[in-house]
Design goal:
Four Helix Bundle (Hemerythrin (Met), subunit A), alpha/beta, five-stranded parallel sheet, 18 helices, 17 strands, single chain, 546 residues, protein kinase activity, phosphoprotein, elongated, EC 2.7.7.65, diguanylate cyclase, binds guanosine-5'-triphosphate, Diguanylate_Cyclase, Rossmann fold
């Protein structure tokens, strides 16, 4: 169902329930008139306030007009012990108008804007689905780069001229092009023009040039190319840039937890955000928030300001007290977005107040930018700064969680400990920076080679932990062995000197150990054995070959 359809459906449901809702509020008002008390007054006020929010959201301008006045009058009474008679009469008139307005009040058309159709989050491609073209007329150079990039798990095709590349590109566009600027069949100017078009159409262009002068670089900047390399391009740097560039277009879907005591509002805002690719957990009771956090880790919280059992600010403070969410962005949703209210909400520790009347596109833009920030903060706290892989704590937590799930549902998870061989010698010979480059290259190789459902972490200096859930033993062994093999073929260059590095690994499968801790010990034991047997190999229990 499209977003407009589901919005229409929500609106129809709301309009269907509206007459009863109004009668319910008026019944409450009549009871209050008979027995004036603060508790009943605040209940009437809350119902009117909620109706105001919904009528704004669904564009019921007539209803909103009356409810605005009602809310203002009732608000003025909240702190007054006894209302004046003329105030009661004015309220009677307004409630009467509200009832009369039942059938007349036709909704104004929903605000659905063109850009609401477009989700900024394209579904992420599987890593090996990224296709890279190299257009390089020097056969040896092209073949060498192709070979190196394939070692990192990229799908690469080499073309000796631009025309043959275009034939393939027109059929199945590449995600990224490495473009030599001196080609036999096209001029530099024409190539830059083509590069501009590719970049416009979301195909990244990296220039490979023998010239690194200002004029040439300026032409490249004006053609909007993503990166510029002077030949010979260093493979590890090239890989890092490719990885960064391709990752930019496969952002993770952002997760939002939204709480509003009115189910119609939860449905409306959830539907709006979901239509833009966000994952939303909508709750109509504040008490459901803490249990929900056990399963759902949001990048952003959105709380309604006025709710019966707890207000949005109290809920925001509660969330901030949870260690994991201390820095998470929190937005408070309200119909009352006066400057004074905004200031007090920000002072109380929330990030901002967002009006229920905000145009959908602006609402979505605000939510996405804050959720993205929340996502970045949470992910940088859980990642190793050099490699970008999960840090020691996070990979351990993840491995334990996957182990527990596998045991519970009777599936299989493979946990592998990888350690680079003779790494001290690499550092001693090529310097710490040279060693860092190797670590980074290995991290890219892992990210490139594994599924998006696998996990990779930097366990210690040159030690890595891999977690492959739901994968049969022979397949896991073959996959990890292929990574070991590919890594051993990567040629590193430091000060003009070429060298290679190998790795050893210990593998364990969840059905081989009764406790998670036993798995770790066994993986370590296998790793030690791989080193003892001469390195550059993987060791696993004989049953691992089943
Ligand atoms: N460049 C770099 N080196 C690191 C980093 N963290 C740890 N190391 C180095 O990794 C090396 C690990 O050396 P050892 O534990 O002796 O092991 P090894 O030389 O790899 O020998 P084997 O594991 O037995 O094959 C040490 O020299 C550490 O300084 C890092 O972040 N960057």
């Amino acid at each position: 169902m499209s977003f407009e359809d589901s919005l229409e459906q929500l609106k129809r449901q709301f309009l269907h329930a509206l007459p009863d809702k109004k009668k319910q509020i008026i019944t409450l008002w009549i009871s209050l008139r008979k027995n004036w008390n603060a508790h009943m007054l605040s209940a009437v006020y809350r119902e009117v306030h909620n109706l105001k929010g919904s009528s704004e959201t669904f564009g019921l301008s007539d209803t909103k007009h009356i409810v605005d006045k009602l809310e203002l009058q009732l608000k003025g009474l909240l702190n007054a012990p006894d209302p004046e008679l003329h105030t009661i009469k004015e309220l009677d008139t307004l409630f009467h108008q509200l009832l009369q307005n039942n059938m007349r009040g036709q909704p104004s058309p929903p605000v659905v804007e063109a850009q609401m159709q477009q989700s900024p989050y394209k579904p992420a491609k599987a890593r090996h689905d990224h296709h890279i073209a190299i257009i390089e007329d020097d056969g040896n150079v092209g073949a060498m780069i192709t070979k190196q990039l394939r070692e990192f798990g990229f799908s690469v095709q080499h073309f000796l001229n631009f025309t043959s590349f275009l034939v393939v590109q027109n059929e199945t566009p590449f995600d990224l092009i490495l473009l030599d600027l001196i080609l036999p069949d096209w001029t530099e100017e024409a190539l830059f023009e083509a590069a501009t078009e590719f970049e416009k159409n979301n195909t990244r262009v990296f220039v490979l040039s023998s010239r690194g002068d200002f004029d040439m670089r300026l032409l490249a900047i004006r053609a909007n190319v993503s990166e510029y390399f002077v030949k010979p391009a260093e493979t590890t740097l090239l890989v890092r840039k490719i990885h960064q560039s391709l990752k930019m277009s496969e952002k993770q879907p952002l997760k939002v937890l939204l709480v509003d005591d009115q189910q119609s509002m939860v449905d409306y805002f959830s539907s709006l955000l979901r239509s833009h690719g966000l994952i939303v957990k909508g709750l109509s009771s504040a008490e459901q928030v803490l249990p929900a956090l056990e399963q759902f880790e949001p990048d952003l919280f959105i709380f309604d300001l006025y709710m019966p059992e707890v207000n949005g600010l109290e809920l925001a403070k509660m969330i901030r007290q949870l260690d994991k969410y201390t820095s998470s962005p929190i937005l408070v949703l309200s119909s009352d977005d006066t400057m004074q209210n905004k200031v007090s909400i920000i002072q109380a520790g929330s990030d901002d107040l967002i009006s229920k009347q905000t145009a959908p596109s602006l609402f979505v833009a605000q939510v996405i930018s804050r959720a993205q920030r929340g996502h970045d903060i949470r992910s940088s706290a859980s990642r190793d700064s050099l490699t970008g892989l999960l840090n020691h704590t996070q990979i351990l937590v993840t491995a334990r969680r996957c182990y527990n799930v596998a045991r519970r549902i009777n599936s299989q998870v493979c946990i592998a400990m990888f350690d680079l061989d003779h790494f001290k010698k690499v550092n001693d010979t090529y310097g710490h920076a040279g060693g860092d480059k190797v670590l980074l290259a290995f991290a890219h190789l892992l990210q490139q080679s594994l599924r998006q459902t696998d996990f990779t972490g930097r366990y210690g200096g040159e030690e890595f932990m891999l977690v492959l859930p739901d994968m049969q033993k022979p397949l896991a062994i073959a996959k990890l062995n292929a990574i070991r093999e590919s890594f051993s073929h990567i040629v590193f260059v430091e000060d003009g000197v070429e060298f290679k590095v190998t790795l050893s690994g210990g593998l364990v499968f969840s059905d081989e150990c009764e406790e998670f801790q036993d798995c770790l010990l066994l993986a370590d034991k296998h790793l030690y054995e791989a080193k003892r047997l001469g390195r550059n190999q993987l060791v696993f229990s004989p049953s691992g070959q089943d």
